[in-house]
């Protein structure tokens, strides 16, 4: 260590005191400890051109959740003799200035596998090398170190969940008690010429406050995360019998899952601590579910996607991504906007998209429904376009998991049974036959009789008038016919799969354009055949 006396703890995710090895190490043997969070304009600056309030990277609900998490972290630090130093600017440049001005001998931060942070960390490490400053960057955001799993697999990530489980085994730390409390931290030294601020409000960042009904019901922070965790695991039987596909995507008064994902995303909750809490319950349970469907299985899915993302160049795009099928998706702005803005004319889909915009969270099966509908189920719009909308609006938006799920749900990677489609009509009906979820999030349909609530365009005009909702006036007509659209999507995917197989995945832009022309022609033929059949039926 250069001076040995001063440490800097650089918070990015990992916004917690419990199970924070970087913070513990920063405190050890230090005279002064500087806990820093940098407000990154790349992430926080308002973007007036975006389709919803927020920055170019994040919707306002997620920015608000992050600010609440920082306020909570600051309060926790104050209880142990410290505080959070909030600085503004490009994080790499700000950090380098801090290291110089505060004579830092030890720089600690949680390891991050996201490409943005990988590049940022390389920049900071490049400056530090040769200065004598010690860097400590432990893996504590995930259960495993993705690099270890990739090494065990011979240099590439496992692409099936079962092979991931076999390689992963028991996490190395699983049998050792994790440090969950910090009793005191070294004081903060002189901050010199730095403009240190308190955690800003959304208004101070240049935003308007969100209206009450546009604001997520989930509050950020470690205190809230631990409270939610305690409530979730209090019902030991629920934990032991948790079975993922059996949740109810239409439950909104009391969501059918833990809603711990945003807290794991920002590291307000340690995934390792969550893992140990679940293990303690399972040890005492006579019978319990197992991965992939169990609660523990959900945490392991998270690590599966982190590992796949870390070991796959261009994981967040189709082009240049070796694990992604090359498919001639449409880039239809109108269809994308109808989906994004809850105007598809399919109430189940539109209600989910309203909940996403307002809450910043939707049940995983609701995510499956709308992602399938946009891509391989009905609209055949590029998964990258849908991913971008989720990335912005979800408070739990996580680079690896969001991209992994879109690759999966569009049948571009991991899952290839493209004939299995979530119906935008019958899937929601199975859980909520009365349509209460739709009535709540789409009040324009609140008086529609339950027989028509999932397909209001089939309601006789007298019923529409009585429900004060005329289809095509008060609520849109469907943008596609689900039956013919899903047939067309299957045809297009079948052709694309055949091309990928024939060319061994080495599909050029030219190949895709040729296929697009061919399938467009076939689609026109399909259309005219189905129109003739309809006409015959009417005659």
TrEMBL record:
PROSITE patterns: PHR_CRY_ALPHA_BETA. Its cofactor is FAD. The keyword ATP-binding does not apply. Pfam families: DNA_photolyase, FAD_binding_7. Residues 5-143 form the Photolyase/cryptochrome alpha/beta domain. The keyword Flavoprotein applies. Residues 517-539 are annotated as: Disordered. Keywords: FAD, Flavoprotein. Belongs to the DNA photolyase class-1 family. PANTHER family: CRYPTOCHROME, CRYPTOCHROME CIRCADIAN CLOCK 5 ISOFORM X1. This is Photolyase/cryptochrome alpha/beta domain-containing protein. It comes from Solanum tuberosum.
